[in-house]
Amino acid sequence: MPLEFLFGKRKTPEEMLRQNQRALTRAMRDLDRERMKMEQQEKKTIADIKKMANQGQYDAVKIMARDLVRTRRSVKKFMLMRANIQAVSLKIQTLRSQNTMANAMKGVTKAMQQMNKAMNLPQIQKIMMEFEKQTEIMDMKGEMMEDAIDDAMEDDGDEEETDNIVAQVLDELGLQMTEDMGILPPGVREAEQAKNKAKPQAVGAD
């Protein structure tokens, strides 16, 4: 605190660059004002030279001509000085932009460091392995529950009804299918055999 009281608050690089750029802008405005004054003086000197020449005052014309040359040189120097100052101002603006970019990168880097510190890779790996394990267990239990539900919902009468439907289809198809009854399920084959025994036999049949 005492140092700040004696020497003032320490300025940041951004504040220093902004202050220098304002000073350069003010200097360019001052140079423009002086250049405009000298250009007006140049016009006045030219008018005076013409007036003196018309009056035959050649000695005065020569003196004023020297002043005109000096004025034009001064205007040229002002223009060169302003161009140099403007170039420096542009460089300072570039430095400000680079400084802003550096500060932004610094903030991003700090945030990334905090995120990297907060991320516990072994713990995340352990969580992912446990998640995969629990998923497999859930899938296995789901399959077991589906099998149990299928077994509970299965009806014993379905098999008998299925055999009757197959026998009915065989009746509609006739003897062409009854010759291949050896490949049918036992329940269907027995139903067909019982049905054939129940049919009356033709007279004279063996």
| Helical/strand content category | mainly alpha
Number of strands: 0
How does the major sheet shape up?
A: none
The fraction of residues in strands falls at under 5%
Report mean pLDDT, rounded to a whole number.
Answer: 76
DSSP helix count?
Answer: 7
CA radius of gyration is 55 Å
The poorly predicted ranges are: 1-5, 175-183, 202-206
Distance between the termini: 131 Å
Shape: rod-shaped
**N-to-C series of helices and strands:** HHHHHHH
Helix content: over 70%
Oligomer: single chain
Entry keywords:
single chain; 206 residues; mainly alpha; 0% strand; rod-shaped; disordered N terminus; disordered C terminus
Q: Could you explain the architecture of this structure?
A:
- With 206 residues, the protein is mainly alpha-helical.
- The protein has seven helices and no strands.
- The termini are far apart.
